Amino acid sequence: CTTDDMTKFEKYKEEILPNKRLTSSLQQALKEAEGHLNFDEDDQSACEHSYTSSTDLNVSEILEMNNQLQFQKEKAETSLKIFENEAEETFLNFKTEIEKLNEKNSILWTKNEEQDKIIKNLKTAHSEQDKTLQQLENDCLSKEANIKRLRNEINDHKEILRLEKSLHTKQMEVNDRLKADGERMNIKIESLTAENKNLQGKLDSIYNRTTNGANTVHKDACEYSKAATDTELDEYVKQIYDLENIIQLYVDQLTEKIKEIDYKNCIINEQADHIETLETVWNCDI
């Protein structure tokens, strides 16, 4: 086994033996070749040592040992050759597989780049969608705020309509009350006017009767004074004065009553004017 053989063997050993994809026969052949080489080196060293240290070793034994060494060398070379062939075939298979893997890797790399582009485009689209969603969310919030504001305005408008309806109802009630009060005032005015007219008639009648009575009394007094004594005349004059005082008192009472009726009539007229003003204002508001 030469140094070149050993170098080649070590090369194959380092490159191929650690690979787990070697066939079992190739691994076994490699181990046997390694065992033969190691045996040859050990035996050769042992033989050299035995040859130098022993003096009773004959030539036939040395030849036999040499033959064994030669046989072991040939066997090792055969195993090594088998190993080289299998290793070469395995190496070519590995090379073919590696080329296929490189081709697949290139295809996968191309697909990976395409997928990276797709992912980048998807990220860009996702970012745009995020912006769109954010814009939609903002629009929704704005519309929700507008809807809430409109709902509040509608509620306020409903409240205003309710208040207007209530106010209109109250205005109608007030108008009805004012109309009824006006009618009652008119009736009262007519009643007071009639009463005033009646009292005025009574006053005129009293005045006429008083005037007629006074004239009659004066006439009677003149006639009575001719025949009556002074005492009778004084008593008669006193009765006349008393009667005049009673008549004047009654006239004063009637005058106060007429003044009171006129005052009430004035108040009623003012209230009627106020009611008419209120009716005008309410009608304008309605």
TrEMBL record:
Official protein name in the record: Uncharacterized protein
Coiled coil: 66-209
Keywords attached to this entry: Coiled coil
